[in-house]
Design brief:
By secondary structure, the protein is α/β, with parallel strands linked by helices. The chain has three domains: 2-81, Winged helix-like DNA-binding domain superfamily/Winged helix DNA-binding domain (Arc Repressor Mutant, subunit A), CATH 1.10.10.10; 86-158 and 262-292, Periplasmic binding protein-like II (D-Maltodextrin-Binding Protein, domain 2, 3-Layer(aba) Sandwich); 162-259, 3-Layer(aba) Sandwich (D-Maltodextrin-Binding Protein, domain 2), CATH 3.40.190.10. The chain is built from eleven helices and 14 strands. The protein has helices spanning 2-10, 13-20, 24-38, 54-81, 94-98, 101-112, 125-133, 180-183, 195-208, 221-229, 274-283, and strands at residues 43-44, 51-52, 86-92, 116-122, 139-142, 152-160, 162-167, 178-179, 188-191, 214-218, 235-238, 249-255, 261-268, 290-292. Strands 4-3-5-13-6-14 form a six-stranded mixed β-sheet, sandwiched between helices. The longest helix has 28 residues, at 54-81.
Length: 293
């Protein structure tokens, strides 16, 4: 088809063969083979010069498009293998946004990978694990994770101190700092979703020295803060949530200090693509993050 385009452009077999860096008989044989395959003459040689036949004129735009697409494919595949193009699907938990980590990573990545389409979907830690294993997403951001999974790579990218979220009208809101004694008798609200609340629960047990009284589970950060705002209980949350303004909610530090909340980036250990590897290299390793196997 490239030979056909060259002859159509030059209207001369000798000049076309020269530009293609082949001998003229070989070019003539290729054009003849194409005409045989199509069952139609493409060039009229009867008037002392070469002209396209009706079949050749109709074929020309189709061949031009096909060759252009083939050239584009030849360029795209190496770029795909280098992680420069494609679609990257990212699952995230709210703390990835409130901490600014998600925005910083995506912005840094897009500086060198402008041809990559980024698709974002909010989901909790358990949903992200399932989505990673079923290839529904490529990358996940989990606020807390728990034990490392054998088929998932886990990169710790940030840690945050805990804060107590409570209604502005709550009696404890008058205190500047809260202690375990302050909250031991309080009704607590936790994130729902298995591992999504395991970090909170473990921290509360350590802090209180007893089993906390769980009033309810919230399916999302907004639902949790809404429940706090209307006085249904108090909640232990990562300090990054203090960056958002929620009417009727205040945040207080707690003593003694306990193990911080962690934000992790996860990916499938084996089924990664060059695109995923490029994102991790750009956003995690350049961040100086700590990788746990």
């Amino acid at each position: 088809m490239r030979y056909f385009l060259m002859v159509a452009e030059e209207r001369h077999f000798g000049r076309a063969a020269l530009r293609l860096n082949i001998v003229q008989p070989a070019l003539s044989m290729q054009i003849k083979a194409l005409e045989t395959a199509l069952g139609a003459k493409l060039f009229d040689r009867s008037r002392g010069r070469i002209e396209l036949t009706d079949a050749g004129r109709h074929l020309l735009p189709e061949v031009s498009l096909a060759v252009a697409q083939a050239e584009r494919a030849r360029e795209v595949v190496p770029r795909l293998l280098r992680g420069e193009v494609g679609v990257l699907r990212i699952g995230f938990f709210s703390n990835a946004v409130f901490s600014g980590k998600l925005q910083a990573h995506v912005e840094h990545f897009r500086r060198t990978h402008a041809g990559v389409e980024i698709v974002l979907e909010e989901m909790n830690a358990v949903e992200q694990l399932v989505a990673i294993r079923t290839n529904a997403i490529d990358i996940g951001y989990c606020t807390v994770f728990g034990d490392t999974e054998a088929d998932v790579t886990v990169h710790r990218i940030a840690t945050f101190p805990w804060r107590v979220a409570l209604a502005k009208t709550h009696p404890l809101a008058q205190a500047e700092v809260l202690t375990a004694e302050h909250i031991r008798a309080e009704k607590l609200i936790l994130y729902a979703g298995g591992r999504a609340e395991s970090g909170q629960l473990s921290t509360l047990r350590t802090l209180l020295g007893t089993e906390p009284e769980i009033a309810r589970y919230a399916p999302s950060t907004i639902a949790l803060l809404a429940s706090v705002a209307v006085g249904l209980g108090i909640a232990l949350v990562p300090a990054t949530l203090t960056n958002i303004g929620v009417a009727g909610v205040v945040f207080r530090p707690i003593v003694p200090a306990v193990a911080p909340a962690e934000l992790h980036l996860i990916a499938h250990r084996r089924d990664t693509s060059p695109l995923v590897d490029a994102y991790i290299d750009s956003s995690v390793l350049s961040d100086g993050a700590d990788q746990r196997q």
